[in-house]
Amino acid sequence: MNSPAVLEQLINALRCLPGVGPKSSTRMAYHLLQRDREGAQRLAASLQQALDKLAHCDYCNNFSEHAVCSLCLDSHRDKSSLCVVEMPTDLMMLENTRSYQGQYFVLMGKLSPMDGIGPKDIHLDKLLKRAQDNLVEEVILATNFTSEGEATAHYIGQMLKSRGIKVSRIARGLPMGGEIEYVDSGTLSTALLERKIVT
C-alpha cells in the first residue's frame, strides 16, 4: 500500500534532522498526525517563526533576533577575551560552566575538506575582523578535539598568530574524539581554566 504523497513528504522532511533515519522519521510523522496534532501545529509554527526571525549576530555570529545579540550587548562581559566555538550548543555548554566571562565567536561548523567545508564556509573573515577590533587581547580556541576540530583550531591559530594576536587553546581536559556538547560542566570548566598559549 502506498502512503499519501503529503505523508511521504513529511516523513522525508523529518529525515533532515541529525540521527533520524527512515524508521524514526516514520514513527515521528505518525505520532504527530495520530496523537499530537496540536504539538505538530506548535512545532510547525515555531519552526516557521525561527526561520523568519532568526539571523546571525553581527559580532559573535550566533543566532539572534536582533543585529547584535544580548550576550554581545552585555556590558559586564570581558571584551578583551574572545572564545571561538564550533556551534551554538558549544557556547551554551561553556556558559553553563560559569567559568568564562568573555565574548564568543561561533563558527557554525568546522573545516572539513572531505565535506567541502573550507575557511569561507565557517565565517573566518568575520572572525578575523572581530579579533582585530582593538578590544580583543586573547582569542581562546575552544573547538572540539576531533580531527576536524583540531585542524580548525590549527588553521585559525596560525591565521591569528601571523597577525600578532595572542591565541590559546582550551586544555585537554576533554577526551580525545569528544565533543563539547556532551561533556560535563566540571570537565569543561577545568579545560577552560587550564588553557595554554598556542606556540
UniProtKB/TrEMBL annotation:
Keyword entries, A-Z: DNA damage, DNA recombination, DNA repair, Metal-binding, Zinc, Zinc-finger
Cell cycle found in the keyword field: no
Residue ranges of domain Toprim in the record: 80-175
Record-linked Pfam families: RecR_C, RecR_HhH, RecR_ZnF, Toprim_4
Superkingdom of source: Bacteria
Keyword check for DNA repair: yes
C4-type zinc finger locations on the chain: 57-72
Role played: May play a role in DNA repair. It seems to be involved in an RecBC-independent recombinational process of DNA repair. It may act with RecF and RecO.
Homology family: Belongs to the RecR family.
HAMAP family: RecR
Name of the protein in question: Recombination protein RecR
Gene from which the chain derives: recR
